[in-house]
Write a structure and sequence with these properties.
Elements: H1 9-19, H2 24-43, H3 51-83, H4 92-109, H5 113-116, H6 120-130, H7 135-172
């Protein structure tokens, strides 16, 4: 028996195929910041945090970051598909370039989502570290954590926005941007 998806499921799978990076360079450009922030977050965990807790913290940050990035890219791709219909372009490459821009905009728009995501592992790690600290030290630690999440969101937006600007600029300069997609 064939697997059936609810209404829109086929469109979702099609969009997913289009939003996943194609080559190593594109993976690094689009999803590298999330992995980097996960490592930084684990390294910045409070003193005395076990290696296991640091790995769990990094995994939680990576999943939240990657999830928001892919969600934003998917939203941008789906909206871009409505804005840029197939019959409006002479070639598939022209439409693909427009859709890539729409995906970048979606990714940037989704950048604040990690700040809103629940973080049960991070909460547990920081609550454990806060036990035995004074009220003032606890407030300072919480402010530092909130500031770190805000800085991550800002840096992700800047990096994602730079990636969206970089590739068309390279193409305009005569540099084949496929080298960043692992195709050359």
């Amino acid at each position: 028996m064939a697997m059936r998806f609810p209404m829109g499921g086929g469109r979702l799978l099609s969009a997913l195929k289009e939003i996943l990076p194609k080559g190593a360079g594109e993976w690094a450009l689009r999803l590298g910041p999330e992995a980097g922030f996960a490592v930084i977050g684990a390294a910045m965990a409070p003193e005395g945090t076990s290696v296991t807790d640091r790995l769990a913290l990094a995994g939680e940050d990576a999943l939240i970051g990657l999830g928001s990035s892919l969600l934003g890219s998917a939203g941008g791709r789906l909206i871009g598909g409505r804005i840029y219909p197939r019959n409006a372009f002479a070639t598939a490459e022209e439409r693909a370039a427009k859709l890539a821009g729409a995906m970048t905009v979606g990714d940037i728009a989704a950048a604040p989502l990690p700040m809103l995501a629940p973080r049960p592992i991070a909460t547990s790690v920081y609550e454990t570290a806060l036990q035995g600290q004074s009220r003032r030290e606890q407030e300072e630690a919480q402010r530092a954590e909130e500031e770190r999440h805000a800085q991550e969101a800002l840096a992700t937006s800047m990096i994602a926005g730079g990636g969206g600007v970089l590739l068309p600029s390279l193409n305009a300069a005569g540099i084949d941007s496929r080298i960043f997609q692992g195709l050359v």
